[in-house]
Amino acid sequence: MVPKGMVQNMRWRKDLLKKAYDDPVLQHDLLIACQQSKLFWINAFCWTFHQWDVDPKTGKRKPAKNQHVPFVTWAVQDNCVDMFDWCLENGEDILVNKSRDMGASWCCMAYIHWHWLFTPNAQMLEMSRTKEYVDQTANMKALFPKHDYMNRWLPWWMRPPECLPEQKNRSCMHLFNELNGACIDGESTTEHAASGDRRLIVLLDEFAKVKHGRAMRSATRDAGIFRIINSTVAGPGTEYSNWKNSGQIKIFPLMWWDHPEKGCGRYVQQEPVSKEWKIRSPWYNYEETVRSPKEMAQEVDADDIGSGNAFFHMAGIDTHSALFACKPRVELNVEFKKGIADDAIPSLVRSRGISCLKVTRGRNTKLKLWCRLIGGRPNQNHTYVFGMDISKGMGASNSVISVRCVETGEKVAEWACAQTLPVDMARAAVALALWFGGRGRCNLPFMIWEKNGPGLNFGKRIVKMYHYPRYYKTITIGNVHDQKSDKYGWQSSTDAKYELMTDYDHALAYGEIINHSALALDEARKYITYGDNRVGPACLVEEDASARKTHGDRVIADALTLLGKKKSRKPGVLLSMPQGSAGHRKLQRKKSRKKKGWRHEFDNR
Question: Distance between CA atoms of 306 and 265, rounded to whole angstroms?
Fold first, then answer.
C-alpha cells in the first residue's frame, strides 16, 4: 500500500529508494510490481511539476512552496488510469473533458511513459497543435519535456540507458527504449498527420485548438488501437466539440470539483432562470470575480457554447427558453393530394382551394404547431408570415419554414425536413400557405426566404411557376429609405446577415417575438462569429463559404419572419384607389398641383 498523504508519501519513497539502492533482489521485485500496476509505479516513482497551490478557505492561488512534488494521484485520476486500461483492452477511444489544472496531461504522459518502460515494442505517437508544443527544451507545457522530467526522477536501475536529452536514444520528438524496443514519437497536427501510421496509443493533445480537426480525426482512426483526446474546450463547432457531443466516443470528466483543493467545501445551488443545479465552492466563487464569463466557461466549466464567440446573449436565450419553450400542441403533415400537378397549383392559389390538401397525423410528421386550431385550421382572423431557409435536401441540414403570427408576435408553427429537395420544398411551402390562410392581403401568408444557394431555385418556382402573390422583394440595406427591387427573396451578405441577426437578438430579449421551439433556441445558442467576421452556426466553422450557403437552419428562418413584422391594415381600408375612379382622379390632381409660395398668403388680388 502506497501512502497518499504528501509528506507520508515522500518519507515512504525515501525509505524505499534507500533500501533498493544496493539490493538487486528488491530492485527486481519493484520492477515486477511496477509492471503489474501502473498506479503503483506512478505513486511510487513519478514526480510532477507545478507552480502554485490553492488556499481551500479563500479559493485564492498562492506560489507553491515546492515546485517538484511526488505524483500522488487523486481518486478521479485513479479512475482515469483504470478507464485508459479498459479502453485499450477493448480497442475504444476516450475523450478527456477537463477543467484547467486537473493534471490531465500528466496522467496521459505517465500512462504512455509506463508503456514505454514496461511494454515490449510499444509504438506510441503524441501530437499537439505545433512543433513547439510537442518538443521544446525546458518548456514544461510541451509533451516531451514531461517525459524527460519523469526520466530524471527515476532511479538509475529503472531508467533505460542513454534516454536523457542530448543522449543517443533521445532526439527531437523521439524517445527510444533500447531494452525493450518501445518508442515514443511526436508530430505536430497537420491535415495529413499520422496518415498511414500504425501505433498502439495515439495522443491528440489540445485537440480543440487544432486546424483541420475533421481530417485529423479521420486520418488517426486507423493509425492507433487506442486514441486519447485531451483538451480544454475552445468553443462550439470545433471537431473536439462535435466529437464530444456525437455519442461516438467514451468521455471521462476531469472537472474542478474533484480537485482536492478547488473542490473543498463544494455545494450545489439552483440557477434562478434556468432552474438547473450547479456545483460551486469557495474557490469557484472567487474565480467568478476575477474571470470573464467566457474564461470561466472555457477554463473551469468546460462549456463548449459559453467558451466560444457566441453571437446571441446567452442570458437572454436562457431566459426566453425558460419562459416560453414548450412542447407543440399538435404535429401534422400538410401536403397536396396525390395527382395535383404543378400546372394546377397557380389556379389553386388564385381560388384559395384548400380541398386539394391532405392533412394527416401520425409518425414522421414535419409540421409542429403551438397554436390552437379552429375548424381544423389556424385562426383565420390573424395574419401570418413565413420565414424560410432552404437546404440542398441531401440530409446534411434541414430546410425550415418558421411561421409567426403578426398580431401576437408568437412563433406558431415550424416545418423542418432534411430530405426535401428545393423543388419539392416549393410545393410544400405553397400547400402550407394555403392551409394557414389568414386575414392578410389575399388571405395568404407573406413569404420570405433566403435566396442564396438552393433558395434561388426555390424562389423561381414560387414566383414564376406557382404565381404566389405575396412574397418579399430584396431591399438594399444601408439606405435612408428602403426601396424594393424587382428581385424576389432575401439576399444574404455579411452586413445583411449581421443586421438581421442583431434584430433577432433584440427581438428575443425584448419580447418582440415569442419563440416556443426549444430546438430553434438551442440552435441560436450555437450561433457564433467566425474568424472572417461572419455569423453562422458553429457546426460550419470548418466549412467554406459555398458550404455555408447550402445549409438550412431554424435561426435564419425565425429571424426572417421579422422582415414581415409590420401589421396589416385594418379591414375596410383600401390599399389603393381603383384606376379611373373619381377618388383616383382627385388624388392625381393633388399630386400634380404645384405648391404655392409664401407670397400667396399676402396676395389680395
Answer: 25
